């Protein structure tokens, strides 16, 4: 019988320096992960990466922080190779990388679209590819998408539209990697109370989002709190291994599908 616990597992987290990714890293370390590689995109996130690294080590796990722009296949391949060289073959791979843009379709430039597609879709595809190639048998893969995949709304065409392919990548990968016992899932949080959310929204939009979920009145901020997302991801990469090929929206009733 395969061991689906987090204890003594090796983990790689793309976007693991801060916000949701950083909290996942801390949580898995507290759950007994043996070693965790956290990726961060640029020098502006290095201080956050160092802080998360220290928290992981304080919880008793080995840790390494790796910087990379993951918008090329070669960079994702190198991230996995560097992880394996530093802490061993991963058992759990989590991708939290994303880029948001709120803008009318008529105003989106080709450059903006290409940037969104590279971060949200291309990075996710090649992360899944390399995870499938490099994870130990009975591994777990999870990608963070968005609850806007269940929305009927304007202005997020480039954001939600470039996250949408990850649903199919997840289904395909779950079939292709399933023979090795690897489960593949995606989670779509609602608007989260992090610095990732606020720059894209005006005051009126923020006020709307804080009341849009069915359970908004019971949230600290009215938004999705990252503390409420982490337990679901923890479950999916451990005892929830039987869930595969699925996209799960975690949003307090903000959207549904």
Automatic annotation (TrEMBL):
Entry keyword Oxidoreductase: yes
Q: Does the keyword Oxidoreductase apply?
A: yes
Q: Cite the InterPro entries for this sequence.
A: NAD(P)-bd_dom_sf, SDR_fam
Report the Pfam families cross-referenced here.
Answer: adh_short_C2
Q: Which UniProt keywords apply?
A: Oxidoreductase
Q: In the record, what terms sit under GO molecular function?
A: oxidoreductase activity, acting on CH-OH group of donors
UniProt xrefs under SUPFAM superfamilies: NAD(P)-binding Rossmann-fold domains
Spell out the protein name for this chain.
Short-chain alcohol dehydrogenase like protein
